[in-house]
Specification:
Elements: H1 4-63, E1 67-71, E2 82-88, E3 93-99, E4 110-113, E5 118-124, E6 129-137, E7 140-148
Parallel strand pairs: 5-7
Antiparallel strand pairs: 1-6, 2-3, 2-5, 3-4, 6-7
């Protein structure tokens, strides 16, 4: 009779191990799905900011006047803080985005604007609305992104 008890114990331990592996696999899959939807929401925010930036750049070029816009942004995406940053090089202007509270350089999430301009500024989620301002500084077209509370 004592030999039956260890076999039940081994079966119970094996069942615990397999169920733990399954549970952690499902948790990892759920986290991956959640993260991909959060990245999609961030990309949509970047697209809307790029569209408004392109509109302001075109308006400033056409009228030769300063143009500004405020965009209502969510405080967080999912439960994560996010940031948006506008940058440029000698050929292109783009908007970068990522999760966290500190903008970093060379992120993989980028949306390019069709117009060239000197671009500067960033927005961190949770700090008011995003304020875009387009203007000429001499002959250089500039676009500025900042938080406005």
């Amino acid at each position: 009779m004592p030999s039956i008890t260890p076999s039940y114990l081994y079966t119970f331990v094996a069942l615990l191990a397999v169920s733990s592996l399954l549970l952690f696999s499902f948790m990892a899959y759920a986290d991956a799905l959640l993260f991909s939807s959060e990245v999609k929401q961030l990309k949509n925010l970047m697209d809307s900011l790029a569209a408004k930036g392109t509109e302001l750049l075109t308006l400033t070029l056409t009228t030769n006047a300063t143009s500004e816009a405020n965009l209502q942004m969510p405080a967080v995406i999912g439960n994560k803080q996010y940031w948006l940053q506008i940058r440029n090089d000698s050929e292109k202007t783009w908007i970068e985005g990522g999760f966290g509270n500190t903008p970093i350089e060379e992120t993989e999430l980028r949306v390019y604007l069709p117009k060239e301009a000197y671009a500067n500024g960033y927005f961190i989620g949770g700090y008011g609305v995003a304020h875009l301002k387009c203007y000429f500084e001499g002959v250089v077209l500039q676009i500025l992104l900042e938080s406005s509370s």
